[in-house]
Amino acid sequence: MNDGGPGPRTLTVVRQEKTLGAARDLEFGLELLARVRSGDIGPTLRLYRPAPTVAFGQRDTRLPGFDAAAQACRANGFEPLVRRAGGRAAAYHEGTLVVDHIEPDPDAIAGSKTRFGYFGELFADALRRVGVQAAVGEIPGEYCPGEFSVHGTDPADGAHRVKLVGTAQRVVAGGWLFSSVIVVENSAPIRKVLTDSYAALGLDWDPATAGAVDDLVPGVDVPAVEEALLSVYAGHAPLRTASFSSLGA
Description:
By secondary structure, the protein is of the alpha/beta class. It is built from 6 helices and 11 strands. The protein has helices spanning 22-38, 66-75, 112-128, 188-201, 213-216, 222-234; strands spanning 11-16, 44-48, 53-56, 79-82, 90-92, 96-105, 133-136, 150-154, 157-172, 174-183, 239-242. The strands form 2 sheets. It has an 8-stranded mixed beta sheet, sandwiched between helices. Helix 1 (22-38) links the parallel strand 1 and strand 2. Helix 2 runs antiparallel to helix 4 and helix 3 (112-128) crosses helix 6 (222-234). The two termini are 25 Å apart.
């Protein structure tokens, strides 16, 4: 994938079997971006299940309730961090799948908005393959709202939609990192920590918009979503696998 569409270059798929810790996991994605940009490694897809984390946006840190929000995260067993990308606070844990897609690109800035739409549709396609009625678009009251959020519709209540995938992007001269979080299992702790932290920040949202894939399609787990995602990716680019140790983390 390059400039918002498929590209001929092979994408190396790396499964990180264990978390490096919340802060290190976040930082390592930026290190991979620097290495892709310099030509040290090629286009890379990193998949991992993270430690419980709340990633705040830069704007959140300027709100008077930020310190209280960070404390609320710790009280719920989540580590508060601040990401370099925009947006509002997003929460994830071991029941989610983080997907870091990193590619070199001589004109990375030009394709930045196109990339959001491209990946939104890609993730929606993957979720449909596991039975989710998935679509792309912001839903009213969602946490960390975004035009290209991927949401699912409750099959028992067509008026109830939940956010399932949040995306963020880091663009530098010569490359980009597109990071996505798919909430697959165990949404209750995520809903609780977001409720407490958003209250501390003084931000309005609807907790009913926070859910997981298995809330909509019982029995679906992270490995099933990962398999579906790679099946979709295989239709967009040649894939090869490599060990996580090959990245020298």
